[in-house]
């Protein structure tokens, strides 16, 4: 292969990176200021119209990203399957669980959900409010922002635990004024072989699930949601980095969505204070995770030929 032939893929990659970077940056500067400006008006008066407008602007920003995926990254093949029992719509209220391997996971979620589900939000730390633009956008768009105290702080002042729960309840209840998708990565961190080994995880493809966040959301929102949705993401060629994705270096992405039936006993339990309920809830989540682990294995096997 000549040096000129070797340069072509490199130059193509540089060109694609510059194109994607320029479009996303330009789109962010175009869409971001109106969201922040409208958000400031909420300091004086809450307005459903302002909230709806901000979501429309955010969805416009996401649509630019999706256009890039469809037209600038045609190398990536998508295999998306949705359970027939799952009837999604833009006016629904959904809790969603998902496995977590890469920062690309959130982009995958947004790519799928833009025209099928309400804007996806997730729990964030209150401290993010101090990050310029990003933190304020999370707050304006209704992401539940949590003020969580450490175990040492709670041990010193047990009342802080109840304060944390009250904050969580308030943050979740604020979502009920509009359609929403509330995402929870149950593993709590991105999967890596090292973390898997350190945990001695009983699952082949997953880290151990942390049930507390889901229990909290179901306790607060459970009787008012339309479905508990489980999204499973598989990268048959290995979990990619964010840069790899936007350079078109991810050949295939497989996504499965299924509806999880919520047992009647789940709603109304006290995960924090009732040890028997907590053990039963954790067992239920572990069983869901066993099913998901097998699903991931099956999805991977599809590409092993």
From TrEMBL:
InterPro entries: Plipid/glycerol_acylTrfase. Keywords: Acyltransferase, Transferase. SUPFAM superfamilies: Glycerol-3-phosphate (1)-acyltransferase. One of its GO terms (molecular function) is acyltransferase activity. Residues 94-236 form the Phospholipid/glycerol acyltransferase domain. It holds the Pfam family Acyltransferase. PANTHER family: 1-ACYLGLYCEROL-3-PHOSPHATE ACYLTRANSFERASE-RELATED, LYSOCARDIOLIPIN ACYLTRANSFERASE 1. This is Acyltransferase. It comes from Acinetobacter defluvii.
